[in-house]
Amino acid sequence: MTMNAEWLEIDGERVVQDLQAAREALDSAQNDVVLDFSSVRRIDPSALRAMEKLAGIADEKAVKVVLRGVNVDIYKVLKLVKLTSRFSFLA
Amino acid sequence: MAETVASLSEERIAYLEGLVSQARTAAAVFTQYTQEDVDRIVKPMVLAGLEQAQYLARLAIEETRLGVVEDKALKNMVATEFVYNYIKDKRTVGAIREFPERGVVEVAEPIGVIFSLTPITNPTSTVLFKCIMAIKTRNAVIFSPHPSAGHCCYEAVRIMYEAAVKHGAPEGVFTCLESQTLQDNAYLMRHKDVGLIDATGGPGMVKAAYSSGKPALGVGPGNTPVYLEKTADLNMAVVDIITSKTFDNGTICASEQTVVIDDEIYDSVLQKFSDLGAHICNEKETELLGRTVIDPKTGYMQPMAVGQKATDIARMVGLSVKPKTKLLIAPIQGVGPEHPLSVEKLFPVLAVYRAKSVNEALTVCVDVNHAGGIGHTAVIFSRNDQIIQKFGEVMNAGRIIVNSPGSIGALGGVYNDMVPTFSFGCGTGGGNSTTDNVNVYNYLNIKRVARRTQAHMWFRVPNQIYFNMNAVENLRHFQSRSTIIITNPAMEQIGHVDTVRRHIPPETHVHVSVIPDAEPEVKVVMQGVEALNFYKADQIIALGGGSVIDAAKIMKLKYESPEADLEELAAPFLDLRKRVIQYPTEKVAQARLIAISTTSGTGSEVTPFAVLTDKEHGRKVTLADYSLSPDVAIVDPQFVMSMPKGLTADTGIDCLTHALEAGVSIFASPYTDSNAMQAIRMVFKFLPIAYEHPQDEEARTMMHNAACIAAIAFSNAAVGVNHALAHAFGARFGVAHGRANALMLPHVIAFNAGVPTKFMPSPNQRGYIAHKKYAMVADLLGLGGQTIDEKVKSLVAATEQLLDRLAIPRSIADLGISKEEFERAMPDLVKIAFDDPSWRSNPRMPLLSELGDLFWSAYRGRSLPTVAKAPQQQIAEEWSCV
Predict the structure, then answer these.
(1) What is the ipTM of this complex?
(2) What domain count does chain B have?
(3) Which residue of A44, A78, A80 is in closest CB contact with B170?
(4) Same structural domain, B684 and B699
(5) B150, B310, B627, B691: which has the fewest Cβ within 10 Å?
(6) pLDDT tens digits, one per residue of B70-104
(7) Closest Cβ–Cβ partner in A46, A73, A81 for B32
(8) Whether residue B706 is found in the same domain as residue B807
(9) Domain boundaries, chain A
(10) What is the mean pLDDT of chain B?
(11) Contacts from B35-40 at CB under 8 Å and sequence distance 24+?
(12) Domain end among B150, B185, B218
């Protein structure tokens, strides 16, 4: 599944900007997009909003967005705002 | 409420949804914060609140026209500084409390989104308080202020929000409805993403919160009674009451409403009130006041009076009072609708009542408490601890304030060490879920991480056990003035009683009491007790089998503790350490019990059990307590050398059953295992010899010791389902206990070795180990087999062979019991076996159907159920598996 995927690293210090870049990448994406959250320790409301937008665009373009390396604290946040069902997760 | 929600416009719903979404996001993000993060935010919020205390107080007064600006400023300071002082070191994130000795850790889980209603009477202080609570606990709050206090509350929320976000709180953590309607509240109260409603407001709003179906904290109405008792410090009491009742013009719902004063001090108390600026109303003024400030239709206070000054209320009513009057005091003669001023009055009007006695005073306080103030607050001024205690018992109030002002006292942290709050839980009496002074712990879901603990185990044996041939000689060591030998006729005939007598010191007066050779009846026991009393015995020697020794145990119990109720002591229990009924510890007499066993099976000489036959009610009563254990056991094989072969076989298998059941019991321990395993080894080796060569002294000695050793094991680890089956079957068909055990034994081993349909809770064992324990026995006996399955089969086969060698019938059918008769008995057998406490220590919990299956297996005999495949494991590990 991830063999041909586009791989983007999310910087823990620039989550919103990197998610913006990911949104742009979705426009030209041919395959799945993998967002590597390994270096993200915590997310804030603006990052959550950015993720919600990203999920919306991914739905429109029928592109699968895979989140990799999401720590359990962030996963719980995504669960609480009901975003987990809109992404795939990779350990 | 559904209709009101339906009337909301789409735009309004979108607005409300936006608030919830924002709060939900903030709450979700907040879950990532640490305790340090949270504490870093709380402190500047508190400082911001303190800085703006007066500003917010002025705003509140301007908007609501209720209360006193100075007092409101003070409340804002208490809501910030005092609350902070209480919570600053409290852990509210992650592990918040640890109980290492219990293996329990409490872990905080935020609630999420809280919908908070705030009142008109304490608007800004309540907001400040709730904001601080929410941040400390990582929750987001949507505020809905009282419509007449919207602006000041909005400002309070803004100040808190800005301070919080500036120091790292997630954006959107507080929102406030700019204007609100009942429909808005109804919508938000029922919103799926709102986790908790915190309603501080009027009774209607609190009721709506509780009716929403959401978890809610609600403050109920108050009606605080005060008992001013004659021993009180009157000067302090009067000042405290005035301070409290006039604080913010009486708007705090915990403030005093009716003061019940002892007759002896009534006049002087009223004079003190008057001296300090209160106006004492005469009868006519009281009537006028009641008619004006209380709505005659509803019986509730008139809103126009709430939070107004005493002089303004007097003017409203048309009373002539001095210009600086602080408080209007209205004497009343009772409580209830005919006495309108006996209800809650959130303004400086105080009812007073003259009580002729303590009882009357307490009774009137109860009436006031129940006239709209259940669960809230009550106050007493007294130096009499007994009366204070009684007041605490009869008042149904979450806060019972002693020798301090009601309103400020109830807030906590000022006059006492209660938890500071601006939200008073009123318990179920007030329709609330808590009586707490609501604080941080009410804003958390507290999770308990409970680690597995091991129950304390025990290993008890009689103080002294003398064993091997001629052990009876040791009787000479026991000094006694008066000894009674309890025995049965056979022991006398064989000459065993004379043998015993020979070894008792010559100066001892000895009396022999012969009882029937059967399970003891109450009547027999009581005759024995009479003899013990008559001879003032200080020593009892029980010489016989289990029945005689059991009888002696119960005689000793009733002799030492005549009040002991045998029926009560036989009450069922699951765990000896937690049993409801305790055996008596106070004794009117004391006698040493020496048990000399004359059979090699029951082990009664060392067990804490005794069985009594209750002929009157047609049943057996089992007593169990370590206080029943004999003080001394003498295990001398000379008393069993003449045992008949059949009895040797039956009692020997009883001994084996004890050992095997103790070995696999859920209460087994390394201490009991060592005894159980040794007894099993001795039985397999020496029982056939003792059976076939009754005069073999070594075999008899070993079997006599084995019975005692097995009994030590099961005294501490208990028995199992084999005994439950044998008790039911033996009683129904009159089959000796040992033989009944033998008929069940191979089937029970196979049953316990299988994978249980239902596991028995056994906190002291790691996993299911019965099959491994049986395999361990097989190894010990050198029975062969490579796998656990093979070893269990070897043990079953070896048990079968032993029973064959002892010529024990191998099926119930072999006893001549017809299938039809057995089938008829089956429902009763299953019921009785299930009620038998023995199986409660069995490793596998038997289903009723499985008890039936086991009975039928025993009926058929050799067609044993297949031993189920259990996971294979190295046996060596199982030596330490309990």
Answers:
(1) 0.87
(2) 4
(3) A44
(4) yes
(5) B627
(6) 999 999 999 999 999 999 999 999 999 999 999 99
(7) A73
(8) yes
(9) 6-90
(10) 93
(11) B35/B91, B35/B92, B35/B93, B35/B94, B37/B168, B38/B92, B38/B93, B38/B135, B38/B136, B38/B138, B39/B88, B39/B136, B40/B167, B40/B168
(12) B218
User: SS3 sequence, B580-616?
Assistant: CCCCCCCCCCCCEEEEEECCCCCCCCCCCEEEEEECC
Contact B27 A80 (CB under 8 A): yes
- Asked if residue B370 lies in contact with residue B394, where contact means CB atoms within 8 angstroms, the answer is no
Residues B35 and B159 in one domain: yes
CATH code (residue B282) = 3.40.309.10
pLDDT (average), residues B505-530: 91
| Chain B neighbors of A42, CB-CB under 8 A | 32
Q: Which residues of B are catalytic?
A: 253
CATH code (residue B96): 3.40.605.10
Based on the number of CB atoms within 10 Å of its own CB, is B568 exposed (0-12), middle (13-18) or buried (19 or more)? exposed
Q: Is residue B400 part of a domain?
A: yes
The answer to whether residue B171 neighbours chain A at the CB level (below 8 Å) is yes
Give the number of A-B residue pairs with CB atoms closer than 8 Å.
36
Last residue of a domain, one of B587, B612, B638: B638
Starting from the edge strand earliest in sequence, which strands make up the sheet with B94-99, in order? B94-99, B104-110, B444-450
- Sorted by sequence, the CB contacts under 8 Å of residue B373 that are 6+ apart come out as B221, B222, B223, B224, B225, B257, B344, B397
Residue B872 has pLDDT above 70, yes or no: no
C-alpha B89: how far from its chain's center?
Answer: 30
Domain of B111, in residue numbers: 10-218
Contact B68, B248 (CB under 8 A): yes
* Strands B104-110 and B113-118, bridge-based pairing: unpaired
Beta-ladder partners of B612: B621
The DSSP 8-state label assigned to residue B334 in this structure reads -
What is residue B618's predicted lDDT score, i.e. its pLDDT? 63
Report chain A residues whose CB lies below 8 A from the CB of B25: 45, 48-49, 81
**Between chains, do A74 and B24 touch, taking CB under 8 Å as contact?**
no
In a domain, B595, yes or no: yes
Range list of H helices, B451-488 = none
Can you tell me the distance from the alpha carbon of A78 to that of A80, in angstroms, rounded to the nearest whole number? 5
Residues B771 and B848 both lie in one domain: yes
> Among candidates B810, B678, B791, which has minimal Cα distance to B739?
B810
Domain harbouring B857, CATH code = 1.20.1090.10
Enumerate the β-bridge partners of residue B261. Answer: B228, B354
For A33-65, the pLDDT digits (tens) are 999 999 999 999 999 999 999 999 999 999 999
CATH topology of domain A6-90: Transcription Regulator spoIIAA (3.30.750)
Q: What are residue B96's phi and psi, to 5 degrees?
A: -105, -25
pLDDT category, B266, cuts 50, 70, 90? very high
SS (H, E, C) B267-295: HHHHHHHHHCCEEECCHHHHHHHHHHHEC
B29 contacts in chain A (CB < 8 Å): 43-45, 48, 77
Mutation for testing the B interface, residue in A74, A81, A84 having most B CBs under 10 Å: A81
Alpha carbon dihedral B310, B314, B320, B326, in 10-degree steps, equals: -10
B401 has a pLDDT exceeding 50? yes
CA-closest candidate to residue B339, choices B376, B320, B363, B367? B367
pLDDT band at B576 (very low <50, low <70, confident <90, very high): confident
Looking at CA atoms only, how far is residue A73 from chain B in angstroms?
6
Q: Which amino acid is at B219?
A: V
Residues B250 and B197 in one domain: no
Taking the Cβ of residue B881 and every Cβ of chain A, the question of whether any pair is shorter than 8 Å is answered with no
Claim to verify: residue B262 and residue B371 sit in the same structural domain: yes
Residues B164 and B239 in one domain: no
Tell me the Ramachandran region of residue A57: left when phi exceeds 0, alpha when psi lies from -120 to 50, beta otherwise: alpha
B-chain CB neighbours of A78 within 8 Å are 28
Residues B106 and B205 in one domain: yes
B192 in reach of chain A (CB within 8 A): no
